[in-house]
Amino acid sequence: MKDEKTEDQILDAAEKVFQRKGMDGARMQEIANEAGINKAMLHYYYRSKRFLFEAVFSKAFSLIAPEINRVINEDIPLFEKIRKFTHSYIDFIQKHPYLPNFIIQELNRDQDFMNVLQKKKGFPDFRNFRSQVEQEVHEGNIRPIKAEQLFIHLLSLNIFPFLAAPLFKGFLNIDDNCYKELMEERKEEITNMIINYLEIKE
Amino acid sequence: MKDEKTEDQILDAAEKVFQRKGMDGARMQEIANEAGINKAMLHYYYRSKRFLFEAVFSKAFSLIAPEINRVINEDIPLFEKIRKFTHSYIDFIQKHPYLPNFIIQELNRDQDFMNVLQKKKGFPDFRNFRSQVEQEVHEGNIRPIKAEQLFIHLLSLNIFPFLAAPLFKGFLNIDDNCYKELMEERKEEITNMIINYLEIKE
DNA sequence: ACCTTAGTTAACCATATGGTTAAACCATTA
DNA sequence: TAATGGTTTAACCATATGGTTAACTAAGGT
Fold first, then answer.
1. Distance between CA atoms of residues B102 and B57, nearest Å
2. A contacts of B159 (beta carbons < 8 Å)
3. Could you read off the pLDDT of A66-98 as tens digits, one per residue?
């Protein structure tokens, strides 16, 4: 009759510590302290630091991947899709500010992780989006563009400003609140830019 | 009559290791091995891991900052500036692929670093760019846009695809060469998108 | 009441790691 | 050639760290 209390507490604590400090910077003892639980329990439930880390990473990825997948594969017009993605993604990240940096960082540290992730269900499927874009181009509704490039534009404009927040705050010399307002504005800013680019003018 | 041979060898080795593994993942012994030099020498010349790291980080930043600064503050028309920045930045990063991730990562790890950097000479100055954009908007040459947003667009579109290369390769399911071609195409792709957005249509 | 078993703890272990030191090396110079 | 002083090395040190263990606790079942 085990209740998952301890196991979950550990995962929650590990999430906080790993996402703030990364695999290399995190300490098992710190995770134990954060959870208010004996360090041996981390090994009892998760065996090793690496396994615990993978549990955290998988959970993080399976939180963010559907967020991308959902909108990208919805059966709605392209322009609406772009607007919806931007709005919901920015809202999502405001709630999980450590996530993008965590994912990007660890994916760069261990390139093999991507191979593991690709095999999991729920991994974003790009094909639907590609054919939608190709269709629109073919019908002459939008300017010729590779779906890949559009996809990269979309994610870059949405994700990078959060990743590079410290950098931009420094460059632009603005404070946290001011930056947050900029991010809010970007929902429409990004949408407009992309749509404006895709639209064919007379 | 000291020649700087050893000191430089250490810095070069430290650069490689720190940029690949980050502050926490790097080992002093590994840096020593990479340099083919006794570990004690690292402390002899750089005192501690932290100081050595800061030397590497400062050098990295002082490599990339002028790259941004130079084009952004050049006295040329805005559209030309955007094209030039994109082309030269992408070329630059192809030569230093570890740089963006290194900078972003360590800036997120230690927010204080930005304060130190801001005080150094050569730190990018955004004001010139801002007034240029404001001027163009005022004269009705481009659509109304905050200079900050344009700046964020520009950097996001240019930098993120390199940071998130493993992610995109996974999502799009393409190999290294194919991805490199996409990056090459982006020089014009990004330029066109931004300029197209800024241009006022009838 | 006693046994079993999952859960929990404090103490412990082996190793990795940043850092130090004392002695050796070697080129310059008095 | 002997003294000087910057440079280099191997050995060493203290501590941090991931991981293990043996004993203890408590709940459920008999």
1. 8
2. 160, 164
3. 888 989 999 999 999 999 999 999 999 999 999
Phi and psi torsions of B143, nearest 5°: -65, 155
Say yes or no: ipTM exceeds 0.90: yes
The answer to whether the C-beta of B3 is closer than 7 A to strand C is no
Alpha-carbon distance A131 to B194, whole Å? 25
Instruction: Of A107, A166, A172, A13, give the one whose Cα is nearest residue B109.
Output: A166
| pLDDT value, residue B4 | 72
d(CA B186, CA B174): 16
Q: In B, residues 56-115, which contact A (CB 8 Å cutoff)?
A: 101, 103-105, 107-109, 111, 114
- Which nucleotide minimizes the distance between its C1' and the CA of B28? C18
- The structure tokens 């992610």 sit at B167
Ordered by where they begin, the domains of chain A are 1-47 (1.10.10.60), 58-198 (1.10.357.10)
pLDDT band at B113 (very low <50, low <70, confident <90, very high): confident
What are the residue ranges of helices labelled H in A47-146? Answer: 49-73, 78-95, 99-109, 112-119, 127-138
> Given an 8 Å threshold on Cβ–Cβ distance, is B182 in contact with A111?
no
